[in-house]
Amino acid sequence: MLLNRPVARSFLSFGAVIVIVSVTIDPFIQLTVGKQNRILYVEDSSAQISYAKRYSKVQGADGNTYASTHVDANFALKSAVFYGVSQPDTLVSQQIRRSCPSDNCTWEPFQSLAICSTCADLSENGGVEQANLTEYRLPNGLILNNPDDSDLLLMTGLGTSDQSQSLSFINRDTLIWSMALMKVDNDTSPPVTAVESGLWYCVNEYNSSVENGDLSEVFTTISANDFNVSQAAVYSISEFMSATFTQTTNVNGTKKGMQINAFATNLSGIAYGPTVMEVLYQSKDLSATFAALAKSTTNTIRENSDGGLIAAGKAGISHTLIQVH
What's CA 96's distance to the chain center, in Å? Predict the structure, then answer.
């Protein structure tokens, strides 16, 4: 038989050795080529991000010297207001000036002068008073009135930089702007909604990082004393907010003691006064709209701060680790 022949026996033995050696060596070969990518962060002075302790920028004047004459907000801040009120947070968040040489950077927590925001629902707890079948009022004097149930007046607004004239921000000493809005909403009872949104100077503590080129910032509002805005800058920003968010009007013959300085109407097509009311009327989430506005103006304050302050961080360097078992 074939199995009794020495040549055949040697051939079978050799095959067995190959199988055994193969089973033993193959896993070892696979493990030696295993690798893992990691990012190691090292101090890098070119990893930079802006922050502010003081802001005094005004247009064409020394913002540190207060004068009773008119001072104008600088162009960068004006642009930030229009950009913030019209763009989503996802875009606004990426606008802050920073430098990250490797597209992956981190910074230690830092504090910065900022602008904060919130919106309060005035529709609840009897905030809206129904004067008659077609007229609704807020305690600050804002009125929305559609005689004959016409719905010609879609939204009314009352904006102010005077905290004593606001409803939700009367104790907010650093108030920049508050905007009370009433809007027709036939799906609610009463058929109007009312919201007051506000912006104010504040100080935030930031945890910032860049991952694959995208900036992420998580912040907490804190109490701090070493941050300030010049009087000229305060005046110029408040004046610009008033010019942007209000318009003198006598819609529906506003009654004595009742006030409107912004509106959306549907007389012969929808019209807005001032034009920024188009954004506020169409907004599905006023809290998000004002949060984006606050973040955009904060970005500008950080980028144009007195002294041009920069926080240095760490840059991520990619390493490939090969593991051998």
Answer: 11
For residue 86, is it left (φ>0), alpha (ψ between -120 and 50) or beta? alpha
Q: Which residues contact 194 (CB under 8 A, 6 or more apart)?
A: 121, 122, 123, 127, 128, 136, 138, 142, 180, 181, 182, 183
Contact 50, 312 (CB under 8 A): no
Per-residue pLDDT of the chain (325 residues; tens, 9 = 90+): 333 434 444 433 334 343 434 444 444 444 455 667 788 999 999 999 999 999 999 987 778 876 656 789 999 999 999 999 999 999 999 999 999 999 999 999 999 999 999 999 998 765 788 877 778 999 999 999 887 656 688 999 999 999 999 999 999 999 999 999 999 988 887 789 999 999 999 999 999 999 999 999 999 999 999 999 999 999 999 999 999 999 976 655 445 457 899 999 987 789 999 999 999 999 999 999 999 999 999 999 999 999 999 999 999 998 777 766 6
The pTM assigned to this predicted structure is 0.83
Q: Which two tokens stand for residue 320?
A: 């490939």
Those residues whose C-beta lies under 8 Å from the C-beta of residue 88, and which sit 6 or more positions away, are: 288, 292
Q: Which residues contact 22 (CB under 8 A, 6 or more apart)?
A: none
Pick from 177, 194, 193: which is nearest to 185 by CA?
193
Give the Cβ contact number of residue 306 at 10 Å: 18
How many Cα atoms within 13 Å fall on the side-chain side of residue 86? Answer: 10
Q: Count the helices and strands in the chain (H runs, E runs).
A: 6, 16
**27 burial via Cβ count (<10 Å: 0-12, 13-18, 19+):** exposed
Give the type of residue at 318. S
Contact 184, 144 (CB under 8 A): yes
Q: Which residues are paired to 302 by β-bridges?
A: none
Sorted by sequence, the CB contacts under 8 Å of residue 291 that are 6+ apart come out as: 89, 117
CA separation (Å) from 17 to 6, 21, 24, 25, 271? 17, 6, 11, 12, 90
Q: Which of 317, 325, 309 has the alpha carbon at shortest distance from 52?
A: 309
